[in-house]
Amino acid sequence: YLPIHRLPVLRLYAPVTAPPEVRAGQQAQFSVPAIAGADEYNWTLPAGWQVVSVADTNVIDATAGSAGTIQVTAGNQCGTSSAAELSVTINTAPVVNGTIQGPETICAGAGEGIYYVINPMPSAGNTYDWTLPNGWSFIGGDSTMSPIVNVTLSGTLSVVASNQCGAGTQLSLP
Length: 174
Prior knowledge:
The protein is an all-beta fold. It is 0% helix and 41% strand. The protein is built from no helices and 17 strands. The protein has strands at 22-23, 27-31, 40-44, 50-51, 59-63, 68-76, 79-80, 84-88, 90-91, 99-101, 114-115, 117-119, 127-131, 137-140, 148-150, 157-163, 166-173. Strands 3, 6, 7 and 8 form a 4-stranded antiparallel β-sheet that branches. It has a 3-stranded antiparallel β-sheet with strand order 2-5-4, with no helix packed on it. Strands 11-15-14 form a 3-stranded antiparallel β-sheet, with no helix packed on it. A hairpin with a 7-residue loop joins strand 4 (50-51) and strand 5. It is rod-shaped.
């Protein structure tokens, strides 16, 4: 007679674990708890992702591409588990598609407490690096979307928004 070896039916009960934030081009680690009896793990990654480590274990290192869903199944000679999934949003540097609004011409002696603003207002969570022309000074709001400045000479006012993913494009007001 032939011995029968029973392998357990594989089930992935836990979700895929991941870092709290991922940005395009960043290497990150994803995992599911190891399952007794599993011989392999099959990972499916969103478009543009690249596997950095071996992809047949319960832990994978990958370089992020675009947003999408990460899936993993566990398998053995008795079959394949249902997939554990994780939707991944890719964080990016801020995109500011507006203009700096405020006076472009200021009369001599009337340059105190001039207010500028990025319009439309970009999303929250960014910091703003304003570059003032020579002789200008901040009264308030130097890292916000709307600084108040003292203006003394002509020049170009510019700003760059940034977040944990990098810096966006520069806006300028001549």
